[in-house]
Amino acid sequence: MATDMTTMTKDTILRVEHLSMRFGGLMAIDDFSFEAKRGEITALIGPNGAGKTTVFNCITGFYKPTMGMLTLHRSNGREFLLERLRDFEINKVAGVARTFQNIRLFSGLTVLENLLVAQHNVLMKASGYTILGLLGLPTYKNAAKAAIEKAEYWLDKADLTDRADDPAGDLSYGAQRRLEIARAMCTGPELLCLDEPAAGLNPKESLTLNALLRGIRDEGTSLLLIEHDMSVVMEISDHVVVLEYGQKISDGTPDHVKNDPRVIAAYLGVEDDEVEEIEEKLDKGIIEEGSV
Amino acid sequence: MATVSETVPNNVMAKAIKEGIFAGVIAFLMFSLFVGIETYQDINNQLVWRTRWGLLAVFVAVAAVGRFMTVAFIKPHLDRRKLAKAKAGILEISEEKSFFHRHFLKFALVFLLIYPFLSLLIVGKQGSLKYVDNFGIQILIYVMLAWGLNIVVGLAGLLDLGYVAFYAVGAYSYALLSSYFGFSFWLLLPMSGILAALWGVILGFPVLRLRGDYLAIVTLAFGEIIRLVLINWTDVTKGTFGISGIAKASFFGIWSFDTGSPNNFVKAWGLSASSVYYKIFLFYIILALCMLTAYVTIRLRRMPIGRAWEALREDEIACRSLGINTVTTKLTAFATGAMFGGFAGSFFATRQGFVSPESFVFLESAVILAIVVLGGMGSLTGIAIAAVIMVGGTEILREMSFLKIIFGPDFTPELYRMLLFGLAMIIVMLFKPRGFVGSREPTAFLKERKAISGSFTKEGHG
To answer: Which of A80, B1, B13, B462 could form a disulfide with A94 if both were Cys (CB 3.0 to 4.6 A apart)?
Structure first.
């Protein structure tokens, strides 16, 4: 059983193959492939304009990719091709939830209501698509109670219990970020995609966020995150993929990526001829990727 | 300290005089042609003009003195009161609500239940006809329509300018099916609702991918299409002549309100002949329909579908990322709103006994939407109050014959209805930009139910 579990946790949850996305004449993503493992935190990093958010939007159904295949493997063995699902089905059927770079909360609803909206599909079924619920049947009442309990669980995790009855728009920035993550988790996803969760957070808030994300991973949800803040990425991720100008330039453990000359070049910036020099060396096999 | 309190009023006085004069000048410029000069046709049918300097002077004086008083006395007074309140630490939310305020809804419901008998008691059979029919039923029809539209506009945030189309579908469904096939009101009432909901879905499918202004324009066009079909499809709808002699509603099939019928309600109960009994009966039907609308809306808000509607109003993209099918969610909002419009329509047909396309013009849609906006989008209480003011207000203007004493014998207050209406709306929107009830009641809570300020809720964009 134990060995089963380890093989289970190490299999692939998301496989992206030959993903390309073209906007008119611009090739935003060019033949990009990577895998995210189940039970891991996979980080997608890269300089501004590298195409990280575009990859995210392809995975979560907001863009239809020009080319490529996005396969999601659920733990029950079912597979879904994300590029063929309709936008809302990616969450409902495939179990992929996401947050947004510019927070998108339901600001006029309370914090609790935000978390209840996230459980829409479960509650909808329990209420017999509204008809049975309108008649006041106990199935719906029980489901509604369970939904509130689930919301309370995530409120506690996100440290928002005291603010449960306040409008979401009234929360501080950091709290709004945590609420958005909690809301995404209330949909019961297998893969949680976070678009720059640490943007705009102070160091203390960043630490609590790290703890929250680790907690989510340890409960069995895989994470895929875009992040600029290297301290967050190196701290929590198990696997890092680096993107530059729509192409993958590095893929591996945080330590591997940290020492990759191409990544250093992309982040710190070097002279053009120096990049060519390094690439030449790489091609000739004089230095190995990630060995520097 | 003493110098400050002395100098401030001086400043205020100077400012007040300046602003008063300024307001007077503006008023003079604006009204000099509108009010100062009047055109009329003389005996030779020629258009000639005369001046009305006296009236113009009254207008200018009212503007100037009004502005002066506002700046010099009213505003400082309000500021002082606000300051005193802030000093004493009284927040608006912490103020204890009065007994009447807290039990307002119960009072309102009891009043509505006894209203027909109250008017019978006070003004007698013939007099109460006006109060039950023109005020009671008329207002309640609009309350129901506005509550129906509230589901679409207030909850789901979809701007619908053609809501009257569903009202028309309901009215014509009843009128046609009852005159061609002789079905009864109680069978056709749900049927009209279902037909209207069906039309809501038919309209919804193609247009719900549109958002904001585009959606508003298409719904506006849809309202006009329905009306034009009713006018031009003369074989079935008799065009502009309309359909008359629509069957009255029966007392649940037990008694009839037709005078010739053997089981006539009035005869069966041994009452003296009067149409007021039928009107009272209709009053209770529409009251029950309104209560049904309110009950369903309140229940739906606490259901996943109602929360999804409100979430849709707040942020559609976030909804999709949470696995909510926005197309079906919008369609259900459209269909539910249309259904209540259909109910109201079939009730309208049986009450009037006559329907024609005249009753379903764009102005009706605009009035219903204005009621929703004025009342506060999403708030049932606010909308009901707005309907009483908007519809009751226009009815009352017909009664204001005493205004003739002030403005002269050829003053007809009815003609100024729309002007006063617009003025009232501007004033309300200035002081209560979110409508009478701008706050939102949460649908679920952990510890305490706090009203959510209107500044957090969004109006929707699609």
So the answer is: A80
